[in-house]
Amino acid sequence: MSDILHVEIIQRRHSCLDRSELLRHLRKVAFDALITSGTTVKSFSDSVLNEHIESITFSELNNEDEEKVIDLKTVDMQYHVYRLDLEGQQTEVMEGDGEEELPAASHWILPSAEFHGLWENLIYDSTIKENLLSFMETTMLFSDCKVNTNIISWNRVVLLHGPPGTGKTSLCKALAQKLAIRLNHCYTHGQLIEINSHSLFSKWFSESGKLVLKMFTKIQEYIEDPQALVCVLIDEVESLTHARQSALAGTEPSDSLRVVNALLTQIDQIRRYPNVIILTTSNITAAIDLAFVDRADIKQYVGLPSVQAIYKIYQSCILELKRTGIVTSIDNIVPFKFLQLPQMEQDNTTALRLSMELFEIARQSEGLSGRTLRKIPFLAHAYYVQVPQVSLEDFIKAMHKAVIKQMAERKDFPQP
């Protein structure tokens, strides 16, 4: 059985070329026999492709996202042709008491230009992304094959939990985007609806479960379109627990308990639809509602990045600054796996020296969240560079200073 290489093709907005004709031209193009996973191509020898295709990305080989050299002659290529929606985030509102309008959720059409490249730039130590993608693809397969849910049970519910700033919400959005791309042979488009738990359980207690029902009635309208893949994102779902515990303890009105029960009931009801997925996050593991935990098929912990992951995050940031011309250098940061090779000890190149300095910075950054790590290059430039262009060597020195400053500032705040 051959490995599958996913080839993601972004078609230009103005293009009227149908998928089969586009792929016919694509198959005539001679790409390098050996190509690195994650490679993106933006120009082609075929003028038709240049006119109709924005870019082609040779994505993961099956579910492996580690950079590796792939022999195109030995893999089966699975093509995903799609356009990016440019509208961006829209706010869903509904009527509250009287004529007041309440912001119920944020809404995106997928695949969205806002989330383009997000999946590829989320870096984790384990196979979190691969596992989630495999879970979702199996979920859709079982639904398409009409597997009896009374015999084999699944709820299409994912729970990501862990400390703040580790990329849980971003991972949910990236997963929804990736699914809209990978499943475009089943669905013409995706819908991402993000519900904010804090808004739901602070403003809507007085209206009991009525507004919860209204909100899910709106979601149901999207779900009833069989051409749409609907992803519902509930951020910081531990708010459910606080509401239920307070109600049971008598410190909140029983109305709040009805709100939470209404939400769980609605989740149970929409699970019968094959085109809906519920993605949730929590920052406080101990506070997650057990009634909700039981509904989650995957309960995945997302922790702070290791030194290896930090190094890769910094490397991706430097590559982006080189792309924009802010960092100037003919040298590239060496991939982490090459730093471990014995023969690299004999290498005295500038690239290796700078890479080792970046590795040391990564080691000193251990304990920082992914969100903070991606601010380090910005802070390094703002505090210690302050010119339009800077050499790679000077920028790495500035990053070192920024990390030291960040660590010193953290001491002023109590750590959990």
UniProtKB/TrEMBL annotation:
InterPro entries assigned to the protein according to its UniProt record, in alphabetical order: AAA+_ATPase, ATPase_AAA_core, ATPase_AAA_CS, ClpA/B, P-loop_NTPase, Pch2-like, Pch2_C
GO biological processes: meiotic recombination checkpoint signaling; oogenesis; reciprocal meiotic recombination; spermatogenesis
AAA+ ATPase domain segment(s): 154-306
Gene Ontology CC terms, in alphabetical order: chromosome; nucleus
Gene3D superfamilies xrefs: P-loop containing nucleotide triphosphate hydrolases
Keywords: ATP-binding, Differentiation, Meiosis, Nucleotide-binding, Oogenesis, Spermatogenesis
Family as reported in the entry's similarity comment: Belongs to the AAA ATPase family. PCH2 subfamily.
Descriptive protein name: Pachytene checkpoint protein 2 homolog
Native species: Coptotermes formosanus
Lineage start: Eukaryota, Metazoa, Ecdysozoa, Arthropoda, Hexapoda
